[in-house]
Amino acid sequence: MPQSTAKLIHYRGHIRNRAELCAELGLDPKQPRCEVEKQIMLSAYEKWGTDMPDHIYGMFALAIEDGDRTFCLRDQFGTKPFYYYLAKDGTFLCGTYIRDIISQPQFEKELNEDMLQIYLSLTYVAGEDTFFKGVKKLMPGHYLIFENGKVTVKRYWTPTFRPDESRSLEDFADEIHSTVTAIMPQVKDADEKAASFLSGGVDSSYVLAVSDIDDTASCGYEDERFDESPLAAQTAKLLGRRNSRCLITPQSYFEAVPYVMYNMEQPLGDASAIAFAIACKETAKSFPICYSGEGSDEFFGGYNMYRNAERYGDNLKNFYVGNTNIMKEDEKQRILKNYNPDVLPINLVQSIYDETEGLDPLTKMSDVDIQIWLEGDIYLNVDKMSTAAGLEIRMPLTDLRVFDIASRMPSKYKVNDEQNKVAFRTAAAKVLPEEIAFRKKLGFIVPIRIWLADENYNADVREKFSSEYAAKFFDLDEINGIFREYVGGNSDNWRKVWTIYTFLVWYEEYFVKR
């Protein structure tokens, strides 16, 4: 049999069913995890080809060079990023970091200004395009083949929903709990040292309760209105675990913004990203690995807005583009120097509505968030900020086996008039007190809406809103008017101010300083 020419040139991830794959592929599981995972990916490619992701549970993004052919793959949910670029001379560049691509001599750096219109509505970069013209994201559930100078992208996995009305709430809660409990031993090897992020919410509390983690990490603020850390400390004590609190001050928060935007590689207007970055840096001082609870909100109906789904009905496809939509087209038209009427956020999700035709409104909303929001905001933030800090984040609830349960669950077990994430909370109540399992969702709240109006902290915002490069893109009178209204008491404007500001910080990092 001829020797394989395949070579793994990029890989980042964590494979959960490593032991089973080693047995099936004839590999030694006792090697260092990173090495054995690389061997698994190569062997899986050689054995199953483009069907390889059907056999793998975990997070992954990779590229394999096989003679004159390059095969690139991203996991079903997009937990790890992957980018590619076809240069004018035909060179194919790819990797899990944009910086690896734009540092190559064949790359021609140019801003994709159309993306700014998407960003001002969504606060993150959605879809396959990026802010760097020509640099594309390989989307979740897709693979790519570069051969004979041509890029071919194919989709191998699509979220599908088939509600099973024959089963009870308790049936689904039991299945969630048994599945999560079975997954947990695969998330961490016995000899690996890890902590777990812990807020006051059910997701992180449930992950902690079913894990063998002894140490937890929480964020806190001096302002008690925003501080969930006492709830986290109570949960840790109840479960017999240790808890440490990272105090985030306005000074540390604003100082971290350039660091975050540089390491994010694309602008992100999610205010929690800065707090998360600070938490990652603090946790990485003591632990190489940390658990986090992402995924369950989108899978199981965790957002309060989902309770309005039935009211929206068929009208969803005309306006719902995901968890955030902060600027409408008329406002963007006013503030942007170069407005393109053909670049609309709703265009990004029309194909998703086609896929969910005939399903209930909550399922449609969830699917948009799974395919757009999770990839563009949540998983990007988790990956970029943890790797920048030297911390590895593992998300036990982001798993195909967990999603499979959600895909079969009727919406009535996800949200009702009183509660969201009903079945998931019922599962969590098997190992948590009811007051924790059914605690109202607070979200990862940050006092930025107050800090941003404080002259002690917003000097850089004011400066950038009047900068020469801001004038390239924005009508300065218009954006400063939004800022003045916000400082004057219109607190609803804080997201708009923050989204414009984060773009300008990112632009300075990548197009002014460098």
Care to describe what's here?
By secondary structure, the protein is an alpha/beta fold. The protein folds into three domains: 150 residues, Aminohydrolase, N-terminal nucleophile (Ntn) domain (Glutamine Phosphoribosylpyrophosphate, subunit 1, domain 1); 278 residues, Rossmann fold, CATH 3.40.50.620; 64 residues, no CATH class. The chain is built from 24 helices and 13 strands. The strands form three sheets. The protein has a five-stranded antiparallel beta sheet, with helices on one face. It has a five-stranded parallel beta sheet with strand order 11-10-9-12-13, with helices on both faces. Strand 9, helix 6 and strand 10 form a beta-alpha-beta unit.
Give the overall form: globular
Question: So how many helices?
Answer: 24
Spans of at least 5 consecutive residues with low confidence = none
What profile does the largest beta sheet have? 5 strands, antiparallel
Helix content estimate: 40-55%
Q: Which strand order do you get reading across the main beta sheet?
A: 1-2-3-7-8
Strand content: 5-15%
Termini gap: 50 Å
Find the structural class using helix and strand composition.
alpha/beta
Task: From the 3D structure, determine the CATH topology of the largest domain.
Answer: Rossmann fold
As for the number of domains, it is: 3
Would you identify the CATH architecture of the largest domain? 3-Layer(aba) Sandwich
Query: Could you name the CATH class of the largest domain?
Result: Alpha Beta
Please tell me the overall pLDDT.
95
Specify Rg, calculated over alpha carbons. Answer: 23 Å
Count of DSSP strands: 13
Write the CATH homologous superfamily of the largest domain.
HUPs
